[in-house]
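Annual report, structural modelling task.

Input specification for the NAP complex:
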Amino acid sequence: MEYRELGRTGEKVSTIGMGTWKIGSFRTSEERETQVRALRRGVELGINLIDTAEMYNHGKSEEVVADAIEGVRKQVFIASKVSPENLHHDNVIKACRASLQRLRTTYIDLYQVHWPNPKIPIRETMSAMEELVRDGAVRYVGVSNFSAAETSEASAALRKNEVASNQVEYSLSNRSVEQETLPYCAKEKITLIAYSPLARGQIATSMPKELLQKYRLTPAQAMLSWVTRSEQVVAIPKAASIPHLEENASSVSVRFTLSEYDLVSKS
Ligand SMILES: NC(=O)c1ccc[n+]([C@@H]2O[C@H](COP(=O)([O-])OP(=O)(O)OC[C@H]3O[C@@H](n4cnc5c(N)ncnc54)[C@H](OP(=O)(O)O)[C@@H]3O)[C@@H](O)[C@H]2O)c1
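The model returned the following structure:
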């Protein structure tokens, strides 16, 4: 596994993390067990970044993550998120406490504002985030779905901490962050956490076959290697099965040359 520094924190997170949207919804206890085992397999393979949110399946995703990290808490870097309706000061604190309970841990490594809420001043939200850091409930502060301008405002609202990351949609089929957000993050040394990096399962079908053969990559692996080309980016594909998880974990051992990267970009 390859690791990259999260923002300017000095912390190393795996270039391929694990997303958990839709995890926590299951029809049988076996299905739930498979989700836990897949996350545990990821940790065995060296993946340390696990992304969840209070919003995912009404907290059930965080509960599955809690089971998966039992006994390995210190090996993992847990990223969770506070929902946009909870961004008033006291609600941020309450939401974080509830996430900590569901995750059965005393700290969240990265606590992210899930979406901006223009009705609530970012200064108020960030003052609560700083309190959580001061009290040891949170280690680092992040944002999600923030534009470059919104990220800059969030940074300015923090007094003792920095915005370590911005989690945004980025994949071969959605490259809009390349316009402003990615260059801004690179300039400010903010990690861009790419969500839906596999285009929500719409795996590219027109990848150049010669490249896939040359590097023995599946199209999904090529999508993950492509999206993490910039040092500033880590990706959090969601995989509910162990074969998908293993495939994703080994995707970044290959790096395309610039001309190959351009070829994949056009596919
Ligand atoms: N901040 C935000 O607002 C936000 C929004 C959306 C998502 N996210 C985060 O980003 C994570 C990932 O995004 P996502 O869940 O939307 O989509 P994604 O990771 O782009 O795609 C997930 C889909 O790809 C499939 N898949 C995984 N590995 C595969 C492989 N090797 N080959 C073929 N198919 C594969 C999965 O199937 P299986 O499940 O069957 O393995 C699932 O159907 C989320 O789980 C969440 O943590 C954040």
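The mean pLDDT is 96.
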